[in-house]
Design goal:
mainly beta, Elongation Factor Tu (Ef-tu), domain 3, single chain, three-stranded mixed beta sheet, 4 domains, Phage tail proteins - horseshoe like beta roll fold, 13-stranded mixed beta sheet, about 15% helix, globular
Length: about 325
């Protein structure tokens, strides 16, 4: 019995299609829809169209429910298919002006306006005083709301499609009992840097309309400044934002090196998606990683006889 099942639903007909291996499923932590790519052999009965529903299951796990977006025919009578999940519609652009909404409520607004299906959406607590989004992708609108929430709470949230239902959850809820070590993959690449989202001084500015004076809130780490020089993050505060609390939270988030780890051809686990966290224990030259790391991107390759993943991970020194 085959480990995987791939169905295309087209105009009242359902096809369980034979595919040329591998079937590839790719998900990201943010900014991209889930993508399924596969090749099917064209025969007398198979007929499907852009917009048709695609369902993919592997070893009893329901992994992907999305829609055909691209068909590419080749001379060998195979059709190369690219399907995306609901998040593909977050590439739509729109303009919004909203007040007094949490990031979760912003998401629910977008889901309702674009007639999408919702799954688990947690309460993100922080209320965004007001925000303007002018002709922005829905991905950008949600990312801005998520970043504001992270900056004020320190909590990191991930938006993903769970087999046809849009979910928005704290990454703490997506921790898996998986351990990756030196023997798990064939190759790895490890990068550390302070040349990006690393800041040891936070300076937030607000023009107080009532007093006519400028308010400045600063949080800094003198030890890291002595080590790296001044790496300053400067931002203007909106009305209603708590300047001191935000400065302290931003320093906690950004006052560290970024660490990135790419591991190829790791043993596959269908539970892993962009936004998952998993255990890593590896010696990487300047340190030994022995903690949980966040999956930035995962690319699954499914075969009848094996399942492998290419992982892009961000470590304990993580910046959203």
């Amino acid at each position: 019995m085959s480990k995987y099942k791939l169905y295309i639903l087209s105009r009242g007909r359902a096809f369980e299609v034979a595919v040329k291996e591998p079937i590839t499923w790719e998900t990201h932590r943010k900014g991209q829809p889930g993508k399924l790519t596969f090749e099917v052999a064209k025969d007398e009965t198979l007929g499907f169209h852009e917009g048709d529903i695609v369902r993919f299951e592997y070893d009893g796990h329901q992994l992907f429910l999305g829609f055909v977006f691209t068909k590419k025919r080749t001379s060998n009578r195979f059709i190369n298919v690219t399907a995306y999940d609901q998040l593909r519609y977050f590439k739509n652009k729109d303009t919004y002006v909203y007040k007094g909404k949490t990031a979760a409520q912003v998401l629910q607004m977008l889901i309702a306006d674009f007639k999408l299906k919702a799954g688990i959406i947690v309460d993100t607590k922080y209320v965004i005083p007001s925000h303007v989004e002018d002709n922005q992708e829905l991905f950008t609108i949600m990312d801005n709301a998520t970043v504001l929430t992270t900056q004020h709470t320190g909590n990191i949230f991930v938006l993903y499609d769970d087999y046809g239902a849009l979910c928005y959850r704290n990454i703490k809820e997506l921790k898996l009992d998986i351990l990756v070590d030196e023997d798990s993959g064939e190759t790895f690449e490890y990068t550390t840097s302070i040349d990006g989202n690393t800041y040891n001084k936070i300076k937030l500015i607000r023009e107080n309309k009532k007093t006519g004076k400028r308010e400045i809130f600063i949080a800094q780490d003198s030890n890291k400044i002595a080590e790296w020089g001044v790496l300053q993050f400067t931002e203007t505060l909106d009305e209603g934002e708590n300047g001191k609390a935000k400065a302290d939270t931003l320093l906690t988030l950004y006052n560290r090196k970024s660490r990135k780890l790419h591991i190829n051809k790791v043993f596959g686990d269908p539970r892993v998606r962009g936004g998952s966290t998993l255990g890593v224990q590896m010696y990487l030259g300047d340190l030994t990683v022995a903690n949980f790391m966040l999956v930035e991107t995962v690319k699954h390759n499914f075969y009848e006889s094996k399942h492998q993943m290419d992982l892009k991970l961000i470590g304990g020194d993580f910046v959203a």
